[in-house]
User: Which sequence fits this backbone?
């Protein structure tokens, strides 16, 4: 059997299994076109870009995320078709991952997120509007010299005892939970600077939602100039006086914000000079009473000025939904184990980051399909259970006939639709674990130094004394 035939088998198996939820978005013609647009040419080899992409996605979704495990899955697909198994050396697959361009992965991540964001069900929209919610976090990576040079560890950590760290900011669709766009950088850049790289991809009519760090005069104006409304929590440095401005209701008024005298850090001065001198904004305050806790007051600033179309209660509900961004980041970092990436170079760190986001959108696509077929809220479905069911059905989908595959995929979607999360409002859990960790001391010196000391103590005890 030639390499071309074996590649055709793998492309078919992956497309029928892990790629099935993306069937309408990531077609082979779409992938081939993206490769052509990026100027990617490749020889006939087992791990062509398409096979590598699907194998990488399955690797990210598996609990065992090793390259060896991904290669084992590829071998099983070939053996199931009566083919001679290739070498178990995973270096070919690892090199194939390195050849994939970062822009190629970023394009598909944005494409899948945009597709779900643009076609939500009307009942999942907020006041008939699409909402993009933004939030930031951190992740770590393998402690190599190249990673340390690009993503230095926090200065509070001793050299050789910490890990390179990166800051990430992601934009999620509030209706479907899919990632619309994301950016990764060193800790030297703040979340606001990274946020400005993301909202250029929002579309006219969208609403940007975020915490207080994003609610600056400049960002509100720049979003509004693109036809994007915004709703952010009031920054702690700003004082709100509801006795001023146009009163709409209790704790609700329209005021005029004046352009700051100095250009904010991270914003180009030329862009700052183009901002308007004044802008009308709506400030709304509401109180959140939670039994057993002190009532919290939250003040929002928004460009949604119409009090009839967007009531105070609507805005309070909107800000409450901001918590979904925290949940989505938890799915990425904890459920999908993206909190620490084992990649050894900055380029592979970024690629691994975008593949995780693409795999995350794959799970959200399955949940969106379940919500459409069985009339459930996609955000009410268990993310972990969806991964488990998809992983369990992957082999069935890859090796079945067309009739069997249609039945199996229908059953997969049904099972996902039944995995509803319990309704637990105001749930409070202690941030503590019952199981004790191993009583190992913290690494306070570079591992190489401690290993050398152990060797000296073992073989030269008198000299050490």
Assistant:
């Amino acid at each position: 059997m030639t390499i071309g035939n074996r590649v055709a088998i793998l492309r078919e198996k992956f497309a029928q299994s892990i790629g099935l939820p993306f069937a309408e978005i990531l077609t082979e013609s779409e992938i081939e076109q993206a490769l052509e647009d990026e100027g990617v040419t490749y020889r006939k080899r087992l791990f062509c870009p398409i096979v590598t992409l699907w194998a990488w996605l399955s690797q990210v979704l598996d609990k065992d995320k090793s390259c060896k495990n991904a290669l084992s899955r590829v071998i099983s697909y070939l053996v199931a078709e009566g083919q001679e198994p290739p070498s178990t050396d995973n270096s070919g697959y690892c090199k194939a991952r390195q050849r994939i361009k970062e822009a190629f992965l970023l394009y598909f991540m944005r494409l899948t997120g945009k597709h779900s964001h643009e076609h939500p069900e009307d009942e999942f929209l907020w006041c008939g509007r699409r909402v993009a919610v933004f939030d930031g976090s951190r992740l770590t990576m393998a402690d190599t010299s190249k990673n340390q040079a690009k993503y230095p560890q926090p200065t509070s950590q001793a050299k050789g005892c910490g890990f390179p760290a990166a800051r990430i900011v992601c934009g999620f669709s509030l209706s479907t939970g899919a990632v619309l766009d994301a950016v990764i950088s060193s800790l030297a850049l703040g979340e606001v600077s990274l946020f400005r790289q993301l909202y250029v991809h929002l579309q006219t009519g969208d609403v940007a939602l975020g915490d207080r760090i994003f609610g600056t005069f400049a960002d509100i104006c720049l979003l509004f100039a693109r036809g994007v409304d915004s709703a952010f929590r009031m920054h702690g440095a700003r004082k709100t006086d509801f006795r001023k401005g146009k009163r709409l209701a209790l704790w609700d008024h329209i005021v005029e914000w004046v352009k700051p005298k100095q250009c904010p850090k991270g914003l180009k001065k030329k862009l700052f000079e183009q901002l308007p001198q004044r802008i009308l904004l709506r400030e709304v305050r509401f109180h959140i009473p939670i039994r057993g806790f002190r009532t919290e007051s939250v003040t929002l600033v928004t460009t949604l000025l119409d009090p009839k179309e967007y009531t105070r209660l609507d805005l309070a509900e909107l800000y409450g939904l901001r918590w979904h961004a925290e949940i989505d980041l938890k799915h990425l970092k904890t459920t999908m184990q993206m909190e620490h990436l084992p990649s050894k170079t900055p380029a592979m760190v970024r690629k691994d980051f975008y593949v995780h986001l693409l795999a995350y959108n794959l799970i959200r696509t399955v949940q969106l399909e379940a919500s459409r077929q069985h009339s459930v809220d996609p955000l009410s479905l268990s993310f972990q259970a969806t991964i488990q069911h998809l992983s369990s059905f992957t082999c069935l989908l890859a090796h079945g006939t067309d009739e069997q595959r249609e039945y199996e995929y229908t059953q997969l979607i049904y099972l996902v639709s039944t995995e509803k999360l319990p309704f637990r409002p105001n749930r409070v859990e202690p941030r503590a674990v019952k199981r004790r960790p191993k009583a190992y001391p913290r690494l306070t010196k570079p591992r190489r130094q401690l290993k050398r000391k152990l060797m000296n103590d073992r073989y030269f005890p008198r000299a050490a004394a």
Remarks:
- Residues 104-335 form a domain with the Transposase Inhibitor Protein From Tn5; Chain A, domain 1 fold (CATH 3.90.350.10).
